[in-house]
Amino acid sequence: SQTIHQWPATLVQPVGSPLSLECTVEGTSNPNLYWYRQAAGRGLQLLFYSVGIGQISSEVPQNLSASRPQDRQFILSSKKLLLSDSGFYLCAWSVGGPLGEQFFGPGTRLTVL
Amino acid sequence: DAKTTQPPSMDCAEGRAANLPCNHSTISGNEYVYWYRQIHSQGPQYIIHGLKNNETNEMASLIITEDRKSSTLILPHATLRDTAVYYCIVRSGSNDYKLSFGAGTTVTVRA
Fold it and tell me: Can you list the positions of beta strands (E) in chain A?
């Protein structure tokens, strides 16, 4: 069966510090991978998605970036965090075309102070 | 640019059916209706989706009106664990990988 892992579960970082969140998927090949963010009191917003290694599509311009170094690994990064980067970051995966069901990970709660 | 409209909240008695409405009056012919839910502090969970016909699975039933301008998600026997935010999402069959989550409906199941 397929599983998705995210770490860390919670993170507190100072403004201006770098960020690296990791997501890995097990039990499937060539998944589509997604990063979403949910700011406090707001809905989920798609940040990035990837349909293959090295292929990254950005939905929202910001100081975050994503990379996919391996088939089942998706990394969200920032060189300098802003207060507005605080939120609940969720990784998800799907297979097949755009309409495939997306399966979400447990999330990382990031607080930028 | 909201494609769906849902009531902000609703209560439901445990053991009774919960009927969650969603309006999508501007839906086009190749767009599907998807439902996800998010239990507090967890990632969203897929429930069901449909295009024209009514659909049923082990979690819920989806009733889509004939003109496709609205739909209803039915949880047949709500339990306390069904307390969550429920999202109705319209998705195109074209190259659109994004799930556009609105505010959803906060459903509270009461004992």
Answer: 3-7, 10-13, 19-26, 32-38, 44-52, 55-58, 64-70, 73-78, 87-94, 103-104, 108-112
Count CB pairs under 8 A between chains A and B: 55
Mean pLDDT of A37-65: 89
Q: Per-residue pLDDT averaged across B86-98, rounded?
A: 84
**Would the pLDDT of B1 be above 60?**
no
**Residue B5: DSSP 8-state:** B
Quick check: A104 contacting B, CB < 8 Å? yes
Decide if B40 contacts B24 (C-beta within 8 A).
no
Spatial CA neighbour of A19 closest among A83, A96, A70, A71: A83
Answer yes or no: are the C-beta atoms of A75 and A60 closer than 8 Å: no
Closest C-alpha among A56, A55, B53 to residue A46: A56
At B65 the pLDDT is: 96
* Chain B contact set for A45 (CB, 8 A): 101
> What are the chain A neighbours of B40 within 8 Å (beta carbons)?
none
* Residue to test with chain B: of A7, A51, A99, most B Cβ within 10 A: A99
